């Protein structure tokens, strides 16, 4: 009987642990404006950008000197991840991590949207505020 009680308690703790998660507010269609930041080791660069979401499509503006490069295409969301699939052709003379493409971790509180992606020796971050849309 003691064994069954121990199994029940451990199962309950495991079940509760796997079911708790940080809830991310659903991303809303519209336009978001703000800053893009990239770090290469100890060097940092930033630029102004805007990002529009509509009907599972996205469009991002480019900044000065491609910080960021921009991008447009389709996106999907799963939990706290957004996968951007850029549908443009690009030259090979810059860091393609500056293109809004690939998997980003995101947080959204209904107004502020933050996107983050870690590269091998770089990190990319968008810090945006909702300016129009639903």
Automatic annotation (TrEMBL):
<protein>
    <recommendedName>
        <fullName>Lipocalin-like domain-containing protein</fullName>
    </recommendedName>
</protein>
């Amino acid at each position: 009987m003691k064994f069954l009680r121990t199994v029940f308690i451990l199962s309950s703790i495991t079940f509760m642990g796997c079911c708790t998660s940080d809830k991310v507010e659903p991303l809303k269609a519209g336009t978001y404006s703000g800053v893009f930041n990239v770090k290469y080791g100890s060097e940092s660069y930033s630029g102004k950008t805007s990002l529009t979401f509509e009907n599972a499509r996205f469009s991002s503006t480019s900044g000065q000197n491609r910080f960021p490069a921009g991008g447009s295409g389709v996106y999907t969301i799963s939990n706290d991840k957004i996968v951007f699939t850029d549908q443009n052709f690009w030259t090979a003379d810059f860091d393609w991590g500056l293109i809004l493409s690939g998997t980003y971790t995101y947080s959204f509180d209904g107004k502020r949207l933050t996107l983050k992606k870690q590269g091998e020796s770089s990190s990319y971050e968008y810090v945006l505020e909702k300016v129009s849309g639903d």
